Amino acid sequence: MPEEKVSDTEDKIQYIQRLCCGLQSDNKRTRKQILVDLEKYLSSEQFSNQELRDIFNEIHIYTLNALRDKAEAVREQGIHFMQFLVVEKLPLNDYYITYVIPVLVERLGTVEIVEESEEIRLQLVKFLHAIIERYSNTSQLKPFLNDAVIILKETVKDKFPDVKEVSCKCIVDLARSLPRDFHTQAENLVKPIVTAFTHQRYRIRVEAIKCMGEVILHCTHKGLEDALTPMAERLFDSIPLVRQTVADVAGRWLLEYRDRYSFFAKLLPLLLTGLNDEVPETRDKSYSIWVKVGLQYMQENEKDLKDQMDFLVTIPEHYPKHLTRPNLGCRALVKREVGKVCLALSRELSKSWQYDVKIRCSQLLCSIALHAEEGITQHLQDILPAMYITARDEDDKVVVNLVQASELMGLFVPVEAWLKLILPAIEDGPHYGHLIVLTGFIEGAPQQHIRPHLKEISTLLADKTFCQSRKVKYQRELTKCIKVIMKKCNNDDQEIGKDIFVIAITLIALKDKENDTIIDYTLLDDLYKCLGLNSSYELWHKYTKNVLDVVNKDPKMWTINTAERCMFDVVLLKSEKAFGENLEIISGILGECLNPDVDAEARLKTFIALSIAFENKKTIFENATDLNTFLIKLVDDVLVPTLVWHAGRTAEAMRTMAATCLSSALNPGKDNFRLFSSFEVFRPTFDKLLPLLFTLMEDNSYKSRLLAVENVTLLKEAAVQLGCWEINDFVKIYPEVLKRLDDPIDKVRISTLKTLPTMFANVPSDLEKTTFKSHSEHIINTLLTHFDDNSEQVAELIFECLKVVAVFNGKFLREKVERFKPLLRNKKGCDDILNYLSENETIYT
Question: What PANTHER family has UniProt attached to this entry (predicted)?
């Protein structure tokens, strides 16, 4: 029986030897077919282990040479056969792989590419992977660890993506197959694996990160140091799965790495950043891992944390309801490392120009602030300068995260602590980044903790150095800041209200056009409501004097851009009743800022504001206590000096503006409210203004001439109302007004004609005396001269004037019309006059 068995074995070997001879053929198809036939034969027969060993000894030289064959198809078939033989057919024995591994090293383990076919390289790596899986956790694989690492170091850098992917999986399995020995070669793989971190295919990046996660667990600190930066860079990956994998690997390191306590500061950011990721799945996965890390840390440090575990179980009083407080282990772990993390964050936030870096760092800052709680207090001086810079980032996402972090810090850090750092920074040179951070801290601070300090903050911000900026973003953030301060105020905070009022008026006065929708008078509405006042009037009543005190700083030096001038304009336009309650201060400022020596553009703006204010006279002077004094100063110190003729176009424009302002003051408007209610005040004013207005009627500017006529008419009406309209006044005025009928500008002529009925109404009775007869005749002659004007409008207006004139000298008017009718072209007009006189004869008889 044994002899037959031997003989049978020899026959099998001889048959296989004959087949192997075919591998020497020049025909590649023949060589490939031989490999196929060998596999079929070995699959179809039953062999003992000894027979398989003998067969292997006979054929391995030929079949392994197939892996070096010139024909790609033969090499591919050779790999397929050897994998079948070594992995599936032969029993476990390092004897077999002793021959195979060197060939794999030869084909894959060199810097220069030996195997040019990508697909063949992939098959070879898969072959290696199959061997590792087959010999996993056996001592027989240990001698080949170095060779396997030599191969994988190169294949993980392969240009073919599939080779990279399989290599990463192969490394993971190798590490798990030799858990006690892999550490000797682990560090050699770190840098090669890192090269796959930036591959364009996200699946490759994911596998590389997983691979690194396994390898680092077997490395010393040097390997971890080399891996940390590339891992951190993957936090900025655009693919959520990549970021999730980073969090997963970081969590595993935090849980399993032997020397993790020495590297917590560097490992924490890899996981904590994911807690604020924009993708919910990433946040959820990071959170679940982080909870495990915290619980393990708590268990490992149970002795040190025992007091906190027993007594500090309640949630702090002001903890945000929308947030879940991290477990004690998570908080303790972050507090342990917060100083190192803050320093690193500060560097990245301050210096990095990369969009992704700032996004992730700002997210990490939120997580750190949430976990560290009051533990971040002593590190604020390190992180705040970076926060000021980051707050000015162009990306809104970064700023939103920064604001959230600021609010959390404001919640946990004692107000006294952060005020000592933030306010001096603002004093050194404010920018809107300071304000964003300050606003966040105020918003986050509990009301009862921040209220005692609001006055200090508001007083600083109300200083002109800090609130008189014209920069768009600075104004915007200052507005947000005072709104937050108002939210924290109570009815008792009237002193704070004074500062906020000054800031609000300054913002409204200086706002950039881009901020029109953000900065408006609703700020004042918010302020009076938060202070418990009933209306905006009460606000102006309380604080207008404070604003005027701020404004009243050398008005003679104002220019059009002076902040105080702009603020003064707001007071003139919007203070309403409070205007009249502060007439003494306002008149003093007006006397200086409208002095002829002051910048012309600034004076012009103030004149415009004052003119608009006078249109609402009844309201602004409702509570006036010394209106007559104000009017006398206004005329003497402002209007008279400006209306005096001076050469130059600037002086001409000022005269026009002063005349406009005077017109607004004199016009009773729809409320029929007249400023001059006292004869004693009006008469001197009348006498001072009249000659200046006569001069103005001859001014180069037609607008000035037009306004002069209008103002004279308004003065006449006021004089009639006060009972001081005399014949001498009429005799002085009307000739000057009639001259404007010869004005070269039609607008002036038309306007004059419209005012003449008012001028000729209520004439002094002395005009009917013989002594003044010539004056009435002069008026009629002048009007009839212009009655023949080509303009129908002029004729109609003169007709209206003649109706009024008929009251005091209708007889002469009839005689004059009848005499000149044959000479005039406007015969219809003459007939209309005569008919009117006939119908209303009783008026003038």
Answer: DYNEIN ASSEMBLY FACTOR 5, AXONEMAL (PTHR16216), DYNEIN AXONEMAL ASSEMBLY FACTOR 5 (PTHR16216:SF2)
Placement of tokens 């020049």 in the chain: 26
Helix (H) or strand (E) segment spanning residue 521: none
d(CA 36, CA 315) in angstroms, rounded, equals 72
In whole angstroms, what is the distance from residue 619 CA to residue 118 CA?
Answer: 90
User: In this predicted model, what pLDDT tens digit does every residue of 176-222 receive, in sequence order?
Assistant: 999 999 999 999 999 999 999 999 999 999 999 999 999 999 998 99
Query: Cα–Cα distance between 826 and 831 in angstroms, integer?
Result: 9
Alpha-helical regions (H) of 513-576? 522-530, 536-551, 563-574
Cβ 668 vs Cβ 713: under 8 Å: no
pLDDT in tens, 507-554: 999 999 999 999 999 999 999 999 999 999 999 999 999 999 999 989
How is residue 770 written in tokens? 């013989």
Length of the chain: 845
Compute, in degrees rounded to 10, the torsion defined by CA atoms 644, 645, 651, 654: 40
Handedness of CA 114, 116, 120, 123 (dihedral sign): positive
Give the C-alpha distances (Å, rounded to integers) separating 665 from 10, 34, 670, 755: 131, 117, 13, 18
**Residue 1 has what pLDDT?**
31
pLDDT at 707: 94
3-state secondary structure 641-705: HHHCCCCCHHHHHHHHHHHHHHHHHHCCCCCCCCCCCCHHHHHHHHHHHHHHHHHHCCCCCHHHH
- So what's the pLDDT on residue 5? 38
Distance CA 589, CA 552 (A): 6
> Which residues, other chains included, contact 143 with Cβ-Cβ below 8 Å and sequence gap of 6+?
94
C-alpha angle with apex 385: 379 to 386, nearest 5 degrees?
A: 90
In single-letter form, the type of residue at position 468 comes to Q
Residue 281's CB: how many other CB atoms inside 10 A? 12
Alpha helices of 676-826 — where are they, by DSSP H? 679-696, 702-722, 727-739, 746-760, 773-787, 792-820
Task: Point out the least confidently predicted range of 132-141, 216-225, 372-381, 799-808.
Answer: 799-808
Instruction: Give per-residue pLDDT as tens, 221-271.
Output: 999 999 999 999 898 888 999 999 999 999 999 999 999 999 999 999 999
The DSSP string of 396-442 is HHHHHHHHHHHHHHHHHS-HHHHHHHHHHHHHH---HHHHHHHHHHH
Gap between the Cα atoms of 805 and 808, Å rounded: 6
Per-residue pLDDT, averaged over 358-368, amounts to: 91
What single string gives the DSSP state of each residue in 294-335? HHHHHHHTTTTTHHHHHH--SPPTT--TTSPPPPHHHHHHHH
b/e map 32-45, b = 16+ CB within 10 Å: bbbbeebbeebeee
CA distance 449 to 442: 10
Quote the CA–CA distance of 262 and 179 in Å, as a whole number. Answer: 22
**Residues 301, 496: Cα–Cα separation, whole Å:** 48
**Virtual CA dihedral for 522, 525, 531, 536, nearest 10 degrees?**
140
Task: Give one DSSP letter per residue of 338-388, joined into a string.
Answer: HHHHHHHHHHHHHH---HHHHHHHHHHHHHHHHHHGGGGGGGHHHHHHHHH
